From TrEMBL:
InterPro entries: CER1-like_C (IPR021940). PANTHER family: REVERSE TRANSCRIPTASE DOMAIN-CONTAINING PROTEIN, REVERSE TRANSCRIPTASE ZINC-BINDING DOMAIN-CONTAINING PROTEIN-RELATED-RELATED. It is a multi-pass membrane protein. Residues 175-339 form the Very-long-chain aldehyde decarbonylase CER1-like C-terminal domain. This is Protein ECERIFERUM 1-like. Transmembrane segments: none annotated. It comes from Gossypium australe. GO terms for cellular component: membrane. It is found in: Membrane.
Length: 599
């Protein structure tokens, strides 16, 4: 009985029935069900009924979740008692109703032999539950066991293969295949051999399995190797160990073909995300991230079921059965799913959107400056892009600048290098490599000017405990962020200077305290062993230069420079300034101008 009926004395026999009916919702029958499971005990908070702040970000095991360990333990007990799948997410895509069901088992339980029967029973129960709900729009064990199934079982292997093949960089001639040889691994190896790309494996048993499966197509393209450093591109599965990762060369690209990424990541290598695609905007009610993937990015195993429903395909895709890879890949684009974008793709997409318009050279200039060169700016503010990538981006812009309207190839009258010199020398556009360094140099400058900031404290504790940013070393296994900042030291040293206060912090011989970024010749220190800091050039207890000492120690030109430096009457400590700006603060404009002038 509703509480308000007691208050207002409106009790009636129909009140209970009316109230119960108002609370009931019509049960929604989905068209597509994605069957998944919990990864870790803490992943319960990443679900929609967990914390919104956690669900809206890629999953990670945060330290503060340990404070909720009693709640986590209780959730584990509940899932063990409940022992049934439960709905964790509901979405809509056009006319399709999508649901995600979670099996109350954790990732580690799937790898335990004595848990296999229990897990299989739960999966079978979920499949039969879906069959009972007549999901007619949409593993092989269950198909054979229940041949009358109307439900279509889709494991998404064909789409995973398509995404992997399109993730391998163009021009790759050799890849190393390492990890559990799943259906996806066999299919990728077959496709790579067909393309003429050499597939290298490390174990004899893996070679024998692949050679037997691939047949004559593998002749000359499937090889074994004992060297972990022979390939720059690794296709990796669940069985990859940390020790094997450590044997890879620096800069190796790891592309996972499994549903789970490597547990430990090397900071000097590159890691592609697990097979996934960008979802179209028509997909509704996307309030949480899927595991470690960003917002509105969905794993291909989940997308494959949606495509089967949209296209009305009748075959199962499980066990050794695989759908046509090209057909599935085309269906993705047809329904708005897109590969994860990189900078070059975004530039090309913008150009393609505008290339049909009849832009004059003046219009192209504005478009390059305001649109194309602005696309990588955010990324370049945090990371140092490889010079090869900067060159590729500039080549795309150069082609757009010289080509005729409609995409017709035009005459390239001069190189991009000539177009990207300083404006004073007749240049028109930015040099992306110099601009990248200037953006990062501003962040490095903040480490010097704000040594008490949280970022400065964090980096100092790890990379330069007993010195400062300028004197720091790169260190062993540095993070990509630190490598990017460290690469700007040369630029900062070129433009850095000192505003002389008490003169105690600045070295006479090694400090950039003279105009023109000039450091004094260290050979003079042999004759002036008692002169170390700039304060030694002051008259005793006076705020003025000792002119006699300065003239006797330095050449006439250097002495004039020193004596022209004004000294403040108010005593203060020496502090760093940027000599290219009147304010003394490094700006991106002055930072960019310095290397472009010297270059």
């Amino acid at each position: 009985m509703p509480f308000y009926d007691y208050i207002y004395d409106t009790m009636d026999q129909s009140s209970d029935t009316l109230y119960e009916n108002s609370l009931k919702r019509k049960e929604e029958t989905p068209n597509v069900v994605h069957l998944t499971h919990l990864t870790t005990p803490e992943s319960i908070y990443h679900l929609r009924f967990g914390f919104a702040s956690l669900a809206s970000k890629p999953y990670s095991s945060a330290w503060y979740l340990w404070l909720l360990w009693p709640v986590t333990l209780w959730s584990m007990v509940l899932t063990r008692i409940y022992r049934r799948t439960f709905v964790v997410e509901r979405n809509r895509f056009h006319q399709l109703r999508l649901q995600t069901w979670a099996i109350p088992k954790y990732g580690i339980q799937y790898r335990l032999k004595w848990q296999k029967e229990s897990v299989n029973n739960m999966i079978e129960e979920a499949v039969l539950d879906a069959e009972e709900k007549e999901l007619n729009r949409h593993g092989e064990v269950y198909v054979k066991k229940h041949p009358q199934l109307k439900v279509k079982l889709v494991d998404g292997s064909s789409l995973a293969v398509a995404v992997l093949l399109n993730s391998i960089p163009k021009g790759t001639t050799q890849v190393l295949l390492r990890g559990n040889l799943t259906k996806v691994a066999f299919a990728v190896a077959f496709a790579l051999c067909q393309k003429g790309i050499q597939v290298t494996v490390l174990r004899e048993d893996e070679y024998e399995k692949l050679d037997k499966s691939l047949g004559t197509i593998s002749e000359g393209k499937l090889v074994t190797s004992k060297s972990y450093s022979s390939c720059k591109v690794w296709l990796v599965g669940d069985d990859l160990t940390e020790e094997e990762q450590r044997k890879a060369n620096k800069g190796t690209l790891f592309i996972p073909f499994s549903q789970l990424p490597p547990k430990k990541l090397r900071k000097d290598c590159f890691y592609h995300t697990t097979p996934a695609m960008q979802t179209p905007t028509a997909l509704e009610n996307v309030d949480s991230c899927e595991n470690w993937l960003p917002r509105r990015v969905m794993s291909v195993w989940r997308i494959a079921g949606i495509l089967h429903a949209l296209e009305g395909w009748e075959e199962h895709e499980c066990g050794y059965t695989m759908s046509n890879i090209d057909k599935v890949w085309e269906a993705c684009f047809k329904h708005g799913f897109q590969p994860l974008k990189v900078l070059k793709d975004r530039l090309k997409q913008r150009i393609n959107n505008w290339s049909i318009k009849h832009l004059s050279q003046g219009g192209k200039e504005v478009f390059i400056k305001a649109v194309l060169q602005a696309i990588p700016t955010y990324t370049m503010s945090f990371f140092l892009l490889p010079k090869l990538l900067c060159s590729d981006l500039e080549n795309i812009m150069n082609s757009f600048w010289w080509d005729k309207n409609g995409g017709k190839k035009g005459m390239h009258w001069c190189s991009w290098k000539a177009l990207s010199v300083a404006k004073e020398a007749g240049g028109m556009f930015r040099d992306l490599n110099y601009f990248n360094i200037a953006l990062l140099a501003k962040r490095g400058w903040r480490l010097l000017r704000n040594p008490n900031s949280l970022l400065a404290h964090t980096l100092k504790a790890k990379y330069y405990k007993n010195s400062d940013f300028i004197k720091s070393e790169l260190g062993n296994l540095p993070s990509f962020t630190w490598k990017s900042l460290w690469a700007t030291k040369g630029l900062i040293l070129q433009g850095m200077g000192w505003r002389i206060g008490d003169g105690k912090a600045v070295s006479i011989w090694n400090g950039n305290w003279l105009s023109g970024n000039e450091t004094l010749n260290s050979q003079n220190t042999d004759m002036n062993t008692n002169l170390e800091n700039v304060a030694d050039l002051f008259e005793s207890n006076m705020r003025r230069w000792d002119e006699g000492l300065v003239h006797n120690t330095f050449t006439a030109i250097v002495a004039e420079k020193i004596l022209s430096i004004p000294l403040s009457r108010n005593l203060h400590e020496d502090f760093i300034i940027w000599q290219g700006e009147p304010t003394g603060e490094l700006s991106v404009r002055s930072g960019y101008r310095l290397p472009s002038q010297n270059g």
